[in-house]
């Protein structure tokens, strides 16, 4: 009885469809903000150009390209491999930097420029705004991944043969199957970047300078990559988010190494959960003085 | 002559108690306090009572706690102590219900430099669950027109002048119908013409029934439009009430009605005024002034003329709200000069 009365005293939230529509508008505005920002567009353009540059170098030079030789020598056999190769090259550093620039700026940038106080006075709602900020960063990561892949596919097929694909384990699969596998790579890579975006967003709610946040998270990524590369610290590897980012080469085996991908996704989920909880606790309780 | 002598706590709070307000006030705070983690007390037991329909001047020097108070009213900063009610609802608990009815300009304009004025306001509209998407554009255009920014609506905010930025912040506050407008230093960065326009805008909004709460450290600008005022100093409220009450609260203080005499015989006039029993006589180059006290100005004038002092100009200067402000906050050194 008393519990019912307590519930009745709570403010009545808007009907779900109206609230969902209002949130969609906020998210749409967030996406416009991200995708109209010159800096973010320049980053996307650079990410899209890199696979083209790789294709040209592989096509017109005789030598291989460093560590990714196995993937890139296959590119000459099938242009589709350029998409895998480009992801393998860009996932450790370039893609994380792009995602960090957007997610790290999300709250700290608006706080530093003062636009945050006007959004909250609207009222945008702190939890609602944080959710829109996070989804916006994740969608930017997805756009970056898809752009890299599409650009790589276009460049790969323009300069190299297409058709059935020979996998790392030797089996040959159809074009349709290989495109499906590419989609899985895109999904897995986006999930990894979404976890990173959550971490960057959490740091963004903790600090006031957007450049400091972005630099801090990028340094963190580099440190994690170094720790993961040290043989003595091998036991640490499964706990580092960075170790799982390039696990999508499992997709190129037959049968696919699903178990390792699932492990990766679980690590991402754990990072995301902790980071978003931190971001929420900090952002909803914080004094906005900037 | 020092003006802050004689201003005591008791005198300050007696003026502060004047408007008794129940739940009807647009803003009512009791013992509202903000202590920042560093230990700095920005706002100290503030009891503010802003009647509905008033144009309320929130005055005080820079750093006296005005902006922190406004941030607490808008839920940006959580009070350490005390309660705060806006439009009859407790804040910050019922912010979601209150803020759609409140327009605010907080601590200067802040917008995205790469977006146009229109795009910046549409972003605020998109964040507002209470706004109908179909009318958002029309409302934004209307708000821009009200502040005279229609011609620059599609220009990048980064290319706006200081005055245009301030106008855009005002347009943001006027984005929808408001019951309460909270304006923090709305005339900052505006030229005299812009300041006049803001005053007339505030008058219009107030005439339509909106309560206007306007903070300023430049009081002459606000004095002409306010019905009520409060004066802050060092985080504390030193006086509040109607503008007339505040002027009356001056009795016996340093800032009082003075006479100023323009004359080539300054020395003789000064001696005469002292002889008449006027206090605070100051003689300058071709000018003498003194506190009028309870003397009638015409008597003073006649005495001067009869004594052979050539009176070229004679003026009675009544204390302005600025004198009250300077008197209460201790800002400034010499009221009469």
TrEMBL record, chain A:
GO MF entry, a single one: ABC-type transporter activity
Keywords from the UniProt entry: Membrane, Transmembrane, Transmembrane helix
Gene Ontology CC, one term: plasma membrane
Pfam families registered for this protein in UniProt: ABC2_membrane_2
Domain of life: Bacteria
Residues spanning the membrane: 41-60, 80-103, 134-160, 180-203, 210-230, 265-283
Protein name (database record): ABC transporter permease
Organism: Sinosporangium siamense
From TrEMBL, chain B:
Positions of the UniProt region annotated as Disordered: 1-23
Record carries keyword Hydrolase: no
Entry superkingdom: Bacteria
Keywords: ATP-binding, Nucleotide-binding, Transport
Domain ABC transporter intervals: 27-259
SMART domains: AAA
One term of GO molecular function: ATP binding
Pfam family, one: ABC_tran
Keyword Aminoacyl-tRNA synthetase attributed: no
Gene3D superfamilies recorded: P-loop containing nucleotide triphosphate hydrolases (3.40.50.300)
Family membership noted in the UniProt record: Belongs to the ABC transporter superfamily.
The name this protein goes by in its record: ABC transporter ATP-binding protein
Species for this entry: Sinosporangium siamense
